[in-house]
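Render Glycosyl transferase group 1 in 3D.
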Amino acid sequence: MNILLINHYAGSPVRGMEFRPWLMAREWQKLGHTVTIVAADFTHLRSQNFEVPRSFTEVDVDGVPYVVLKTPRYHGNNAGRGRNIASFCLQLSAHAGRVARTYRPDAVIASSTYPVDIYAASKIARKAGARLYFELHDLWPLTPMVMGNLPWWNPIILILQGGENAAFARSNKIISILPDADRYIRERGYDVGKFVYIPNGVVREEENTAPAEPVPQVETLRALRADGWFLVGYTGNHSVANALETFIDAAVMLRDVRVKLVLVGKGNHKDALTARAAGAENVLFLDPVPKTAMGALLAELNAAYMGLAKSRLFDYGVSPNKLFDYMLAAKPVIYAVESSNNPVRDADCGLTVPVGSPRAVADAVRTLMAMDAPVRRQMGENGRAYVRRNHDYPTLAKRFLAALQD
Protein backbone atom coordinates (compact mmCIF):
# COMPACT_ATOMS: atom_id res chain seq x y z
CA MET A 1 0.00 0.00 0.00
CA ASN A 2 1.15 3.55 -0.74
CA ILE A 3 0.38 5.78 2.24
CA LEU A 4 0.51 9.59 2.16
CA LEU A 5 0.41 11.10 5.66
CA ILE A 6 -0.10 14.86 5.88
CA ASN A 7 1.07 16.32 9.18
CA HIS A 8 2.13 19.95 9.26
CA TYR A 9 4.16 19.41 12.46
CA ALA A 10 5.73 16.02 11.72
CA GLY A 11 9.24 15.72 13.13
CA SER A 12 11.35 12.80 14.30
CA PRO A 13 13.17 11.64 17.44
CA VAL A 14 16.13 13.81 16.39
CA ARG A 15 14.23 16.87 15.13
CA GLY A 16 11.63 16.92 17.87
CA MET A 17 7.88 16.84 18.04
CA GLU A 18 5.67 15.55 16.62
CA PHE A 19 7.09 12.03 16.85
CA ARG A 20 4.01 9.90 16.10
CA PRO A 21 3.99 10.31 12.26
CA TRP A 22 7.64 9.23 11.94
CA LEU A 23 7.21 6.33 14.36
CA MET A 24 4.10 5.05 12.57
CA ALA A 25 5.77 5.44 9.16
CA ARG A 26 8.81 3.47 10.28
CA GLU A 27 6.64 0.58 11.45
CA TRP A 28 4.55 0.60 8.26
CA GLN A 29 7.74 0.46 6.22
CA LYS A 30 8.86 -2.60 8.18
CA LEU A 31 5.56 -4.23 7.20
CA GLY A 32 6.34 -3.65 3.52
CA HIS A 33 4.35 -0.51 2.77
CA THR A 34 5.50 2.70 1.07
CA VAL A 35 5.03 5.82 3.19
CA THR A 36 5.53 9.51 2.41
CA ILE A 37 5.02 12.25 5.01
CA VAL A 38 4.14 15.81 3.97
CA ALA A 39 5.26 18.44 6.51
CA ALA A 40 6.04 22.14 6.81
CA ASP A 41 9.66 23.29 6.97
CA PHE A 42 8.96 25.40 10.08
CA THR A 43 6.84 24.81 13.19
CA HIS A 44 7.11 26.02 16.78
CA LEU A 45 7.18 22.44 18.07
CA ARG A 46 10.44 21.20 16.58
CA SER A 47 13.83 21.69 18.15
CA GLN A 48 15.41 21.40 14.69
CA ASN A 49 13.42 22.65 11.70
CA PHE A 50 14.04 21.82 8.05
CA GLU A 51 16.17 24.01 5.79
CA VAL A 52 14.98 23.53 2.20
CA PRO A 53 15.51 25.67 -0.91
CA ARG A 54 11.93 25.39 -2.17
CA SER A 55 8.56 23.83 -1.49
CA PHE A 56 8.03 20.15 -2.28
CA THR A 57 11.65 19.32 -1.52
CA GLU A 58 12.10 15.64 -0.74
CA VAL A 59 14.10 14.95 2.44
CA ASP A 60 15.15 11.63 3.94
CA VAL A 61 14.42 11.76 7.69
CA ASP A 62 16.27 8.81 9.19
CA GLY A 63 14.94 6.46 6.53
CA VAL A 64 11.45 7.95 6.17
CA PRO A 65 10.80 10.11 3.06
CA TYR A 66 9.34 13.55 3.74
CA VAL A 67 8.00 16.13 1.29
CA VAL A 68 8.70 19.52 2.87
CA LEU A 69 6.82 22.74 2.07
CA LYS A 70 8.36 26.15 2.74
CA THR A 71 6.19 28.20 5.07
CA PRO A 72 6.51 31.60 6.81
CA ARG A 73 8.32 31.60 10.15
CA TYR A 74 6.55 32.89 13.23
CA HIS A 75 6.95 33.41 16.96
CA GLY A 76 4.24 32.54 19.46
CA ASN A 77 0.63 31.57 18.96
CA ASN A 78 -0.47 34.55 16.90
CA ALA A 79 -1.37 35.70 13.39
CA GLY A 80 2.03 34.50 12.18
CA ARG A 81 1.05 30.94 13.01
CA GLY A 82 -2.18 31.43 11.07
CA ARG A 83 -0.22 32.56 8.00
CA ASN A 84 2.05 29.55 8.38
CA ILE A 85 -0.94 27.17 8.43
CA ALA A 86 -2.65 28.92 5.50
CA SER A 87 0.52 28.77 3.41
CA PHE A 88 0.93 25.04 4.02
CA CYS A 89 -2.68 24.14 3.22
CA LEU A 90 -3.01 26.41 0.19
CA GLN A 91 0.22 25.14 -1.37
CA LEU A 92 -0.80 21.54 -0.85
CA SER A 93 -4.25 22.14 -2.34
CA ALA A 94 -2.86 24.03 -5.35
CA HIS A 95 -0.50 21.15 -6.13
CA ALA A 96 -2.88 18.31 -5.26
CA GLY A 97 -2.72 16.86 -8.79
CA ARG A 98 1.07 16.87 -8.77
CA VAL A 99 1.17 15.14 -5.39
CA ALA A 100 -1.39 12.54 -6.49
CA ARG A 101 0.52 11.75 -9.70
CA THR A 102 3.94 11.64 -8.03
CA TYR A 103 3.16 9.50 -4.99
CA ARG A 104 0.06 7.58 -6.21
CA PRO A 105 -1.35 7.02 -2.71
CA ASP A 106 -3.88 4.34 -1.90
CA ALA A 107 -4.56 6.00 1.46
CA VAL A 108 -4.35 9.72 2.31
CA ILE A 109 -4.29 10.65 6.01
CA ALA A 110 -5.02 14.21 7.17
CA SER A 111 -3.21 14.29 10.51
CA SER A 112 -2.32 17.87 11.44
CA THR A 113 -3.55 19.09 14.84
CA TYR A 114 -5.86 21.57 13.13
CA PRO A 115 -8.54 20.07 10.81
CA VAL A 116 -8.36 22.39 7.78
CA ASP A 117 -5.76 20.26 6.02
CA ILE A 118 -8.69 17.94 5.22
CA TYR A 119 -9.53 20.02 2.12
CA ALA A 120 -6.14 19.46 0.49
CA ALA A 121 -6.08 15.83 1.64
CA SER A 122 -9.55 15.25 0.18
CA LYS A 123 -8.50 16.80 -3.13
CA ILE A 124 -5.38 14.62 -3.34
CA ALA A 125 -7.38 11.50 -2.49
CA ARG A 126 -9.98 12.29 -5.14
CA LYS A 127 -7.38 12.84 -7.87
CA ALA A 128 -5.48 9.68 -6.87
CA GLY A 129 -8.58 7.52 -6.43
CA ALA A 130 -7.45 6.91 -2.85
CA ARG A 131 -9.28 6.41 0.44
CA LEU A 132 -9.36 9.38 2.83
CA TYR A 133 -8.69 9.21 6.58
CA PHE A 134 -8.75 11.81 9.34
CA GLU A 135 -6.55 11.47 12.41
CA LEU A 136 -8.09 13.37 15.31
CA HIS A 137 -5.55 14.65 17.85
CA ASP A 138 -6.74 17.66 19.85
CA LEU A 139 -10.39 18.68 19.52
CA TRP A 140 -10.37 21.73 17.27
CA PRO A 141 -12.21 24.11 17.29
CA LEU A 142 -13.25 23.14 20.84
CA THR A 143 -9.70 23.57 22.16
CA PRO A 144 -9.28 27.28 21.18
CA MET A 145 -12.86 27.94 22.29
CA VAL A 146 -12.15 26.52 25.76
CA MET A 147 -8.50 27.52 26.20
CA GLY A 148 -8.67 30.82 24.33
CA ASN A 149 -12.23 31.82 25.29
CA LEU A 150 -13.15 32.35 21.64
CA PRO A 151 -16.89 32.48 20.84
CA TRP A 152 -18.42 30.12 18.27
CA TRP A 153 -18.95 33.01 15.83
CA ASN A 154 -15.28 34.03 15.78
CA PRO A 155 -14.06 33.75 12.14
CA ILE A 156 -11.19 31.46 13.16
CA ILE A 157 -13.60 29.14 14.97
CA LEU A 158 -15.95 29.08 11.97
CA ILE A 159 -13.07 28.11 9.68
CA LEU A 160 -11.92 25.36 12.03
CA GLN A 161 -15.48 24.11 12.51
CA GLY A 162 -15.93 23.89 8.76
CA GLY A 163 -12.75 21.83 8.52
CA GLU A 164 -13.84 19.48 11.29
CA ASN A 165 -17.29 19.03 9.72
CA ALA A 166 -15.68 18.21 6.37
CA ALA A 167 -13.28 15.76 8.01
CA PHE A 168 -16.07 13.90 9.83
CA ALA A 169 -18.30 13.81 6.74
CA ARG A 170 -15.76 12.90 4.03
CA SER A 171 -13.38 10.49 5.75
CA ASN A 172 -13.59 6.73 5.38
CA LYS A 173 -12.37 6.39 8.98
CA ILE A 174 -11.79 8.79 11.88
CA ILE A 175 -8.76 7.59 13.84
CA SER A 176 -8.21 9.25 17.21
CA ILE A 177 -5.73 9.13 20.09
CA LEU A 178 -8.63 9.99 22.45
CA PRO A 179 -10.45 6.94 23.83
CA ASP A 180 -13.85 8.61 24.08
CA ALA A 181 -13.76 10.80 20.98
CA ASP A 182 -16.64 8.76 19.59
CA ARG A 183 -18.88 10.60 22.06
CA TYR A 184 -17.66 13.91 20.67
CA ILE A 185 -18.28 12.75 17.10
CA ARG A 186 -21.81 11.63 18.05
CA GLU A 187 -22.48 14.98 19.74
CA ARG A 188 -21.47 16.69 16.51
CA GLY A 189 -24.06 14.58 14.67
CA TYR A 190 -21.73 12.33 12.68
CA ASP A 191 -21.36 8.58 12.20
CA VAL A 192 -19.44 6.96 15.06
CA GLY A 193 -19.19 3.77 13.03
CA LYS A 194 -16.15 5.37 11.39
CA PHE A 195 -14.35 5.79 14.72
CA VAL A 196 -11.17 3.87 15.55
CA TYR A 197 -9.23 4.45 18.79
CA ILE A 198 -5.45 4.23 18.46
CA PRO A 199 -3.63 5.95 21.36
CA ASN A 200 -0.16 7.40 21.56
CA GLY A 201 2.58 4.92 22.28
CA VAL A 202 6.10 4.12 23.36
CA VAL A 203 9.25 2.88 21.68
CA ARG A 204 10.52 -0.18 23.48
CA GLU A 205 14.10 0.38 22.29
CA GLU A 206 14.24 3.57 24.37
CA GLU A 207 14.14 1.54 27.58
CA ASN A 208 17.83 0.73 27.41
CA THR A 209 19.13 3.51 25.17
CA ALA A 210 22.05 5.49 26.55
CA PRO A 211 23.01 8.84 24.97
CA ALA A 212 26.19 8.75 22.89
CA GLU A 213 27.66 11.66 24.88
CA PRO A 214 27.15 12.83 28.48
CA VAL A 215 24.01 14.94 28.92
CA PRO A 216 24.44 17.74 31.52
CA GLN A 217 20.86 17.45 32.78
CA VAL A 218 21.27 13.72 33.38
CA GLU A 219 24.57 14.28 35.18
CA THR A 220 22.94 16.92 37.41
CA LEU A 221 20.18 14.56 38.49
CA ARG A 222 22.61 11.68 39.00
CA ALA A 223 24.68 13.81 41.37
CA LEU A 224 21.59 14.85 43.33
CA ARG A 225 20.43 11.25 43.75
CA ALA A 226 23.90 10.22 44.88
CA ASP A 227 23.66 12.98 47.47
CA GLY A 228 20.46 11.47 48.87
CA TRP A 229 17.78 13.63 47.25
CA PHE A 230 14.39 12.15 46.34
CA LEU A 231 13.63 13.46 42.83
CA VAL A 232 10.13 13.99 41.49
CA GLY A 233 10.18 15.18 37.89
CA TYR A 234 8.08 16.68 35.14
CA THR A 235 9.25 16.60 31.52
CA GLY A 236 7.65 18.44 28.63
CA ASN A 237 6.04 21.69 27.62
CA HIS A 238 5.81 24.42 30.28
CA SER A 239 2.33 25.71 29.51
CA VAL A 240 -0.71 26.82 31.48
CA ALA A 241 -2.53 23.62 30.51
CA ASN A 242 -0.04 21.42 32.40
CA ALA A 243 -0.97 22.74 35.86
CA LEU A 244 2.65 23.23 36.88
CA GLU A 245 1.77 25.94 39.39
CA THR A 246 0.28 23.18 41.54
CA PHE A 247 3.50 21.19 41.30
CA ILE A 248 5.68 24.18 42.21
CA ASP A 249 3.42 25.29 45.08
CA ALA A 250 3.72 21.81 46.59
CA ALA A 251 7.45 22.49 47.09
CA VAL A 252 6.70 24.94 49.92
CA MET A 253 5.03 22.11 51.83
CA LEU A 254 8.01 19.80 51.32
CA ARG A 255 10.81 21.97 52.68
CA ASP A 256 11.25 19.72 55.71
CA VAL A 257 12.20 16.65 53.63
CA ARG A 258 15.07 15.95 51.26
CA VAL A 259 13.10 16.18 48.02
CA LYS A 260 13.55 18.21 44.83
CA LEU A 261 10.83 18.89 42.31
CA VAL A 262 12.45 18.95 38.87
CA LEU A 263 10.96 20.55 35.73
CA VAL A 264 12.67 19.65 32.45
CA GLY A 265 11.63 21.43 29.26
CA LYS A 266 10.65 24.79 27.87
CA GLY A 267 7.51 26.69 26.92
CA ASN A 268 5.80 30.05 26.86
CA HIS A 269 4.92 29.78 30.57
CA LYS A 270 8.40 28.90 31.82
CA ASP A 271 9.40 32.45 32.81
CA ALA A 272 6.25 32.84 34.91
CA LEU A 273 6.86 29.48 36.57
CA THR A 274 10.48 30.36 37.30
CA ALA A 275 9.34 33.60 38.93
CA ARG A 276 6.74 31.72 40.97
CA ALA A 277 9.40 29.32 42.25
CA ALA A 278 11.81 32.11 43.24
CA GLY A 279 13.26 31.34 46.66
CA ALA A 280 12.15 27.70 46.63
CA GLU A 281 15.46 25.88 46.87
CA ASN A 282 13.82 22.51 46.36
CA VAL A 283 12.59 23.39 42.84
CA LEU A 284 14.98 22.83 39.93
CA PHE A 285 14.45 23.93 36.31
CA LEU A 286 16.45 22.20 33.56
CA ASP A 287 16.60 22.72 29.81
CA PRO A 288 14.95 20.09 27.59
CA VAL A 289 16.91 17.03 26.50
CA PRO A 290 16.76 15.24 23.12
CA LYS A 291 14.24 12.41 22.96
CA THR A 292 17.17 10.04 22.57
CA ALA A 293 18.29 11.04 26.11
CA MET A 294 14.85 10.95 27.74
CA GLY A 295 15.18 7.37 28.96
CA ALA A 296 18.49 8.17 30.67
CA LEU A 297 17.01 11.26 32.31
CA LEU A 298 13.89 9.50 33.59
CA ALA A 299 16.06 6.72 35.01
CA GLU A 300 17.43 9.24 37.52
CA LEU A 301 14.00 10.19 38.89
CA ASN A 302 12.31 8.52 41.85
CA ALA A 303 8.82 9.50 40.67
CA ALA A 304 7.13 11.64 38.03
CA TYR A 305 4.33 14.22 37.94
CA MET A 306 1.56 14.45 35.36
CA GLY A 307 -0.95 17.27 35.65
CA LEU A 308 -3.55 19.01 33.52
CA ALA A 309 -5.76 21.96 34.37
CA LYS A 310 -9.46 21.18 34.68
CA SER A 311 -11.19 21.36 31.32
CA ARG A 312 -14.19 19.85 29.60
CA LEU A 313 -11.79 18.95 26.78
CA PHE A 314 -10.77 15.95 28.85
CA ASP A 315 -14.32 14.60 29.01
CA TYR A 316 -13.30 12.68 25.88
CA GLY A 317 -10.11 11.22 27.35
CA VAL A 318 -6.39 11.92 27.25
CA SER A 319 -3.40 10.15 25.70
CA PRO A 320 -0.30 12.00 26.96
CA ASN A 321 3.05 10.97 25.50
CA LYS A 322 4.90 12.06 28.63
CA LEU A 323 2.76 9.81 30.82
CA PHE A 324 3.59 6.77 28.70
CA ASP A 325 7.28 7.71 28.78
CA TYR A 326 7.10 7.82 32.59
CA MET A 327 5.43 4.43 32.66
CA LEU A 328 7.93 2.87 30.25
CA ALA A 329 10.70 4.12 32.55
CA ALA A 330 8.94 2.31 35.45
CA LYS A 331 8.45 5.49 37.47
CA PRO A 332 5.56 5.82 39.95
CA VAL A 333 3.32 8.65 38.75
CA ILE A 334 1.56 11.37 40.72
CA TYR A 335 -1.45 11.92 38.45
CA ALA A 336 -3.38 15.19 38.79
CA VAL A 337 -5.78 14.91 35.85
CA GLU A 338 -9.58 14.75 35.66
CA SER A 339 -10.52 12.92 32.47
CA SER A 340 -12.85 10.20 31.25
CA ASN A 341 -9.96 7.72 31.35
CA ASN A 342 -7.22 7.19 33.94
CA PRO A 343 -4.27 5.09 32.70
CA VAL A 344 -2.50 5.41 36.07
CA ARG A 345 -5.42 3.85 37.90
CA ASP A 346 -5.86 1.22 35.18
CA ALA A 347 -2.20 0.24 35.45
CA ASP A 348 -1.97 0.63 39.25
CA CYS A 349 1.25 2.56 38.74
CA GLY A 350 0.87 5.63 40.92
CA LEU A 351 -1.30 7.93 42.99
CA THR A 352 -4.23 9.93 41.61
CA VAL A 353 -4.75 13.29 43.33
CA PRO A 354 -7.30 16.12 42.92
CA VAL A 355 -6.51 18.70 40.26
CA GLY A 356 -5.27 22.04 41.58
CA SER A 357 -4.32 20.88 45.08
CA PRO A 358 -0.68 21.49 46.03
CA ARG A 359 -1.37 19.86 49.41
CA ALA A 360 -2.53 16.66 47.69
CA VAL A 361 0.62 16.63 45.52
CA ALA A 362 2.84 17.17 48.57
CA ASP A 363 1.03 14.40 50.46
CA ALA A 364 1.50 12.06 47.48
CA VAL A 365 5.24 12.80 47.45
CA ARG A 366 5.44 12.00 51.16
CA THR A 367 3.50 8.77 50.62
CA LEU A 368 5.89 7.64 47.91
CA MET A 369 8.92 8.57 50.01
CA ALA A 370 7.57 6.56 52.93
CA MET A 371 7.04 3.42 50.86
CA ASP A 372 9.50 0.58 51.02
CA ALA A 373 11.69 0.68 47.91
CA PRO A 374 10.43 -2.71 46.61
CA VAL A 375 6.80 -1.54 46.86
CA ARG A 376 7.58 1.67 44.99
CA ARG A 377 9.55 -0.30 42.42
CA GLN A 378 6.63 -2.66 41.84
CA MET A 379 4.32 0.30 41.30
CA GLY A 380 6.64 1.51 38.55
CA GLU A 381 6.93 -1.94 37.02
CA ASN A 382 3.13 -2.12 36.83
CA GLY A 383 3.20 0.93 34.57
CA ARG A 384 5.94 -0.50 32.39
CA ALA A 385 4.04 -3.75 31.89
CA TYR A 386 0.88 -1.79 31.03
CA VAL A 387 2.44 0.33 28.28
CA ARG A 388 4.34 -2.60 26.84
CA ARG A 389 1.02 -4.42 26.57
CA ASN A 390 -1.18 -1.55 25.34
CA HIS A 391 1.00 1.17 23.84
CA ASP A 392 3.85 -0.48 21.94
CA TYR A 393 4.26 1.28 18.56
CA PRO A 394 4.62 -1.90 16.45
CA THR A 395 1.26 -3.07 17.79
CA LEU A 396 -0.38 0.35 17.36
CA ALA A 397 0.94 0.61 13.78
CA LYS A 398 -0.66 -2.74 12.90
CA ARG A 399 -3.97 -1.56 14.34
CA PHE A 400 -3.72 1.67 12.34
CA LEU A 401 -2.90 -0.29 9.21
CA ALA A 402 -5.90 -2.55 9.78
CA ALA A 403 -8.10 0.56 9.87
CA LEU A 404 -6.61 1.73 6.55
CA GLN A 405 -7.20 -1.68 4.95
CA ASP A 406 -10.73 -2.19 6.32
